[in-house]
Amino acid sequence: MRIIGNRGNTARKVQAVASGALASGDTVIVNSDGTVSVIAGAAEGPGSPVVFNSASSNYVSTTFDSNSNKVVVCYANGPTGYGMAAVGTVSGTSISFGTPVAFLSAYIAKFMSATFDSSNNKIVIAYQDGSNGEYGTAIVGTVSGTSISFGTPVVFNTRSTMEIATAFDSNSNKVIISYNDAGGAGGQYGNVVVGTVSGTSISFGSKVVYNSSHTYKNFLVFDSNSNKVVFLYVRTQSADARACVGTVSGTSISFGSNVTFASGYINFVSAAFDSSNNKILTAFNYNSSGGGRVIVGTVSGTSISFGAESTLSGYGYYPVITYNSTSNSFVVYSVDLSANGLVYETGTVSGTSTTLSGLTAVANITSAQVWPFASAYDSSNDKIVLSFLNGSNSSYGTTLVFQNGSTNLTAENYIGIASNGYATGQAATVNVKGFIDDNQSSLTAGQSYYVQVDGTLNTTAGDPSVFAGTAVSATKLIVKG
Question: Exposed e or buried b for every residue in 215-224, given b needs 16+ CB within 10 A?
Fold first, then answer.
């Protein structure tokens, strides 16, 4: 009769110094210095959708307040048209919101964009005020706990104002607002104003034209390496996508030459700054061919140059790109019209090229009507927060919290399972290959189990694929490291 057990099994244990605490039954890796640690990490992907407004929500914009460590989502409430802001608190891969606050208790026609002034610790929202001639207007918000209060609105353009985008220049401590002057005689040129926050108000210098033609889908991003503001936009007449570099001086701004980075019918542009590689990451899509793209820009002086395009999987419609400075990677959310749903891809930069992970669908969001998107990186929680109108759920305002994958597990460093609990610095005993560990629960006898990136066990292989062992009962696993 064959006995399944651990009699005479001392050779199937090893001792090593614990680097960090270990609990009995923890999966364990060996480090390069010979110490051992619990396997820890997190799987990549978004958490469950969270509704921030149980009504149609349009013109969504999202920013992160690094003073209060809160996410602020701004939107137009569909039933009333009021301009609203909700303060969100991230916890794990979820988010909770305080009571929304109106910054405009009147009809807001279109367009809004929010940014965070880290010098004054204020939120600045720029929007088209439909109750006042569709004028371009800005308002300063102060986050306190899970709420936000606002100062008095200030007009920055006394004509119909469209395609509003914002950024904060942390070098000059100024708020930059670009817009399409739809009421101007010049034909909806691209304009910009430089704003200075003081208390709960904001003042502006004179407007400056950066594109003397019809300007569409403006997007701004601040390059903290060159201390420049990069303007990205689409020219409506030719529908090509362009960029130019702005230099702020006092309450004014000057520009280098406009550079075309994509030709064809472009209908959406977004961007982020890669602070590890000092690059401008730009996502856009060709409408005619239905192709989403990512391209890398490099600022030099007052100009910008671009590398080759990388193609997003699927349709790649309305691609919104966000950079994670902890993982040195980016996430692109987009709509895959062929599959009718929200999808994402992750990627990294090398030189002026990108490597993309491939398409992943977001569960339960299967409508093509999930636009507009707005995203922000919560540096306190190391999470990317995406807000959008969710056509899969009555067009409610919805938020997803995205977690970049991380783990200390590799394809080679798993050695076994901790036999008991140990404090950091203690000599820890680890049950290794061939030992029958009896510190498990809820296993199915005869099933193979794989170590996951967070150290748990599952019958499906993770990435990397690491075989943990075979269960012989609900509590026992033959270690196969």
Answer: bbbbbbbbbe
- The answer to whether residues 386 and 374 touch, using CB atoms and an 8 Å cutoff, is yes
Domain ranges of the chain: 10-41+412-479, 45-404
Q: Is the pLDDT of residue 405 over 80?
A: yes
Q: What is the CATH code for 45-404?
A: 2.130.10.10
pLDDT at 3: 38
pLDDT of residue 440: 95
* Assigned CATH for 10-41+412-479: 2.40.300
Give 468's strand partners: none
Are both 10-41+412-479 and 45-404 of the same fold?
no
Cis peptide bond N-terminal to 153, omega within 30: no
Q: pLDDT band at residue 4, thresholds of 50, 70 and 90?
A: very low
Question: 244: burial class by Cβ within 10 Å (0-12, 13-18, 19+)?
Answer: buried
Q: Is the pLDDT of residue 214 over 50?
A: yes
Q: Give the list of residues 6+ apart from residue 220 with CB closer than 8 angstroms, or none.
A: 165, 166, 167, 176, 178, 229, 230, 231, 232, 271
What would the DSSP string read from start to end of 377-403?
EETTTTEEEEEEEEGGGTTEEEEEEEE
CA 396 to centroid of chain Cα atoms: 20
Cα–Cα distance, 384 to 376 (Å, whole number):
6
